[in-house]
Design brief:
By secondary structure, the protein is of the alpha/beta class. The protein has one domain: 3-Layer(aba) Sandwich (Rossmann fold). The protein is about 30% helix and about 20% strand. The strands form 2 sheets. The protein has a 7-stranded mixed β-sheet with strand order 1-2-4-3-5-6-9, sandwiched between helices. Strands 7-8 form a two-stranded antiparallel sheet. A hairpin with a 4-residue loop joins strand 1 and strand 2.
Amino acid sequence: MYDPRARLIRIRSRSLGCTKGCYVYLPPEYDAQPRHRFATLYLLRGHEREWINPHEDGSRGGTTAIDVYLRLRAEDRIGPLILVFPGMASDDNHVPALLTDFRSPVLAAGAPGIGSGRFQHFFFEELMPALDRRFRTIPAARAIAGFSLGGFMAVKAAALHPDRFVSVGAFDGAFPYASDSGRNARASETLFAPPMFDAPLGRPRDQEHLSANHPVCLLMRADPTALRRMTWIIQYGPEALEPWGANFYRGEYLVRVLASLGISNAAPVTAIATAQHNWHSADQHLAQTLPLHWQALAATR
């Protein structure tokens, strides 16, 4: 059972040619203050259920991201937020979307919820505008964060459209390495070798397409002044758990790239010593960083 405090929104996408689900949590003030508008935090991973499924893995202890949010509210550390949990994978969660317009959607082999595979277009041109129309959001007060491949997508989104977000966060993100001072995807990169990436990235891998969707390459191509306007909050697991239990080296790499652009990491702790690549640690990251997102969002009002 997913967290009943989140409502399921179904969006018929013209660009995908199918319907995608998205969960939305509205703060208690939403109905009590009908003339008030609210800041928004998008939380990414893959399937729309993951942040709000108390049993997504065995580590979570029966809680969800909404519980983390409400604990921080009770401690008066953050204010009211709309939380958005988009579906950014196939409906069976077997094919990740990577916030990418798929290079070879036919290779998704009929996975439900993929359609044309135009997920980048769906997210920016359909999902976000649809939610801004349906709910009383503040478009100028929008944040984005993600766990694992959700971190990849959050950083990519911020690099593509720094004007649309005031803060960006990632926990144990799957960040690929780049070559040529960040201009191109590294040909020897193994992160995206598994077959589940065939549809979004092509088989064999289309290096030009990968570079066009590569968070680091996009950061190096973006306006650094616009990037520096955002608050960046990057965390990851400890070095001791490499190579299978944490993305320490990939996280360190991203932080170095950001530093080269004059961007400091606002996270209170970068490598969480007790973290693992699981939902308990992702919720721990959210508890540490939601107040930083709130500070950035509140500064826009």
